[in-house]
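This part of the workshop introduces the protein records we will be handling. An example says more than a description, so a record of this kind follows:
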Amino acid sequence: MVNSHRLIPPVRWNAAAYGAAVLLLAGLSAPRMVSAQEVTPVFVVPRAPVAAAGPMTIWLAVLNASDRAETYVFPASLDCRLRAAGAERSVSATLRNASEAGETTIPPSGHVRREYVIQVPAGVEGQAVLRVPSIAANAVALDVRRTDTTAKAPEAAPVPPTGSPAEPSKSPAGEAGESAAVEFFREHFSGYEPLYFIVGGDDPNAKFQISFKYQLFSNKGPLVKAFPLLKGLHLAYTQTSLWDLTSDSKPFVDTSYKPELFYAVRGVDGGRWADWLRLDLQAGLQHQSNGKSGADSRSLNVAYFEPTLIVGNEDGFHFSLAPRVWAYIGGLDENRDIRDFHGNVGARSRLGWGRGLLLSATGRLGDDANRGALQLDLSYPLMRFLYGNVALYLYAQYFYGYGESLLQYNERTSALRFGFALFR
């Protein structure tokens, strides 16, 4: 539902409006038990037949379907049960690299895998089923053949537990290269603003956003070891597009490009206040433009400061409040009055469960209290269904006010859209 300012009566953006948003946040239902798995272990075995009375490889891959880092303890060995021809035998699986045993951090929406080696008992042949009673994971089927009918059992392809097609086998050097690349990506790249695709009833009916941040300095480098505060320096990029899917040519109405350099400090109190209370700080420089020329060109540069107060456990029920203040840098020749509508202050608040229903309210005030904007985002993880196999969020968004896009910064609009998100 997108309407011009001529169709919507003026609304005074004052304390009452923000009070209504707070009341809406407080109206969420009471907490409930979390029963679905967020961390899902999956066993992966060779695609080809394995050799009887010989060694075989099994991979334990653990998927973190949540949007928070989780930990998992990989045991040095696994007590397994191998059933074939109606008989069940006990076998042991041992980590190929013993140094990989113990607690490991799994990044949000990521996975970690470990390789175990099993000696197939003599006398086992044909179809077999392998299971690990101590781990709530899938059993796996094996095709065990004598060495005169099959080559040496290949190592299991390191396939993440996402149901994706199996990859070709890699040499040790290739596997090491892939692990280094995955580790680099995990350390440096992460989500920033929400990533979503949503659709509403009126034009422009579709809206999507992509956003990520990049940590500039490596945690393992000598500079960070000497100066740990360097870990807080990031680059970020956010792109938000309004898309008219109802027109014949399916044009993009407007796109906002927002590259950013910022510095963030997490937990400035160092955990001294309380386990349920944390203060984060962030300051940065951001450029915004819509990439157009002529009369449709819009651009601005701001320097901002944003503290964030978090009450509660982010994995559980919590509340956060992040006021933001900003100043404009350089001229505003292409849109001299944009400051009147974008203002210099705003705030974002979140209330809900880190692994459940979450409501976010973002507000902004122009130079006049009537020139503001309010956006409500409601999301729920589909990971809670189907044992964590669907790494998506149901997503709903309502916008009302000025400046949903840079092109329409001086027009008041309202829009209700629904869809899915990858990160929130």
